[in-house]
Amino acid sequence: MTLDPWFLIVLVGALLLALLWPGRGLLDRWREGRRLAERARVEDALKHIHARELRGPLATAESLAGKLEVSVRAAVELISAMEERELVQSTGTGLTLSSEGRKLALRVVRAHRLLERYLADELRLPLEEIHARADRQEHRVTEEEVAELEARLGYPQTDPHGDPIPASGGALDELEGTALTDWPVGRPARVVHLEDEPAELMSQIVAAGVVPGMHIEVRRVSRDQLLLWDGEEERGLAPVAASNVFVAELPHPVRPPVKLSSLKPGESGRVLALRSEGFERRRLLDLGLTPGTEVECAYPGPLGEPMAYRVRGATVALRREQGDQIEIEPLDEAAGEDR
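Now predict its structure.
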């Protein structure tokens, strides 16, 4: 069987077009994939080195290999490439970032934490799922897109795990906290950070209802459980999961959780948690009442109910039983604690 020469010409032309079409051909898409993969490796490495600088000990080729899931040899080659770009320096105790490396690391951290805020607040993804999703997307966004996302979210100060979000100029507030497993029994504390890896432990923390901003007290410690008190009910947490919860000093005894319905007109609070499920929870989230959101009590209805609240520039009406399902941190109290 002899093929028509014109058919062969058209076929070869189509194949060449699919391969070489500028911007959309297979060759350019392959190159773009490799470029993104290389960018992700460098940025993930810088994030790891930055995290180790903050919490110690300093990163090493071995720790970097473990974090990136590559061989030590591949990690050493990556470190050499980053040293050539003057992003990192090798010292006797480990790896440190140059000023340019730190700037790039903070840019990625900023994108990651804002993406987490978006995934939790706008897409309503479970808290234990957002870290992995943000990890995959953080390397694909530009600084302009990150700035637009920040404005859309209302310039949040922290991510859903309690970590501060770096400013556009690179400034980052230092987060200080003590692992719950190291916190004294009976000493009031405020949850300031939840470690988001591994996801299995994050799931246990979420299931126990522990959230950033919560006021708790360790009542009892055993080999297999820490018993926590939030002023209203007890919550159990395995020690391995409790080690991923970080707390700071609370200047007063643990009190029952404050409900949104307790605010008077003119008073404000920050949402800590929603204690509802199903359709009711979905409705509250759709109204913008997501953890970390500031809410102001505006004015009561004609008969005292529903109460009007200002949320993200809009006014919403809630009945008392709905307000009872929303735990908040009064902003005047939070300001007093910071002082």
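The mean pLDDT is 87.
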